[in-house]
Amino acid sequence: VASAPLNICGKRYATDENITNVTQSIVDLTGRGLHLKDSHPVGILRDAIETKLNSTDGAFKCYNEFQPVVSIYENFDSLGFPSDHPGRSKSDTYYINGEQLLRTHTSAHEMECFAHIQNGESKQSGFLISADVYRRDEIDRTHYPVFHQMEGCRLWMRNSRGDHIKQIQDDLSKLQSQLSQQKTKIIVQDDSSLEGNPKQAYMSHNEFELCSQHLKRSIELVVAEVFERKLESMRREKDLEIPSELKCRWIKAYFPWTAPSWEIEVWWQDDWLELCGCGLVQQEVLKNAGFPAESTISWAFGLGLDRIAMLLFEIPDIRLFWTQDERFHSQFQKGVISTFKPYSKYPGSTRDIAFWLPSDKDFKNIHTNDVMEIIRTTAGDLVENVKLIDQFTHPKKLKKSLCYRINYQSMDRNITNSEVNEIHNEVAKQLIETFDVEVR
Ligand code: PHE
Q1: Ligand 1, closest atom to CA 110?
Q2: Are residue 322 and residue 366 in the same domain, yes or no?
Q3: Sheet strands side by side (includes 126-134)
């Protein structure tokens, strides 16, 4: 069923009443290009990583302006996502219509960028893609429906003479020498066995070893560089004896389009911090990009820029990235990782909302992300946090009750109690209309 078309980044897209779950408040967040801004934490971090990765051999072509609308094929099918993969569900992903969605990851552009290498449009053997990505999720200090990722890929053409082996060896030794020049030493622990995470059969053991080492050392170089900058600024700002060692570990992971797959974690502030997923690219993806079967070997990684930027710049709330407040933007400058100095925070105001689910529906029929979406659509960036604080089933009436606690708080201005009441009433009204619930 057709409904009003959506205008996203200057293009019109048909919608479908039964499928579309992108709301206008999400559309309003497209095209902001935070990752392109020189003096925005996300932009500064992107620039730092691009510069470092290209300092070894300049192999990476940088794509930073892809539009956020992609096809379901690009986001999922071309990457080998099974048809029942949970990532495809409407509760997790913003669909525009039956064919298009807001990309959920930068991997959606891998096939296209590999194709540029295949058809000679790009002369470089690798690429980096940075972009805004969209996921339906909870509302709290670290989650926002839009965040930024950087994808990195590298590719070698195989030949029977084994020239590529020599090439990867050379590339790897350049990387290793660069790593050894970093002031911060990475202590790596490799916990990733290949059990249940095997190499692709077409690769020789040697190819596999070289390619995965090149991948791991490339990511370690990024980690060393980024955390080195942070440690340096901590030394400067806090005048502390700070160790110049960083503990990292490799663990196995699963992604439909890479095999084997790994994740790197960094020991930071007494916890393992998950930084980046990666792996050796499946032949299927490269075939979709036009390469003959088994003609290439390639690796890919994807890292979330916002979470790393929050940690490096000590940003307490992800919504700050989206503020227009000069007190935020004036603090950052190109190339510098500095500590954010909080300015006076406007007070927040908490409201609870409790409701009975209609008796013919069970909890499964109302997904928390759908409740979050209603709240976000109604209150926008005035919601700081939403928590499900209570749920119980009435033993006699066999009805289920849910209670959400919403904290309203603006990054940019004071909001009055009566304004909060008005918004909160509207949230209640929207919940009643959408889910047919009974407010308690
Ligand atoms: N796209 C993956 C994610 O969003 C990350 C990834 C990229 C993993 C490339 C492997 C290879 O989690």
Answers
A1: 9
A2: no
A3: 60-63, 126-134, 146-157, 296-304, 271-281, 258-268, 245-255, 185-190
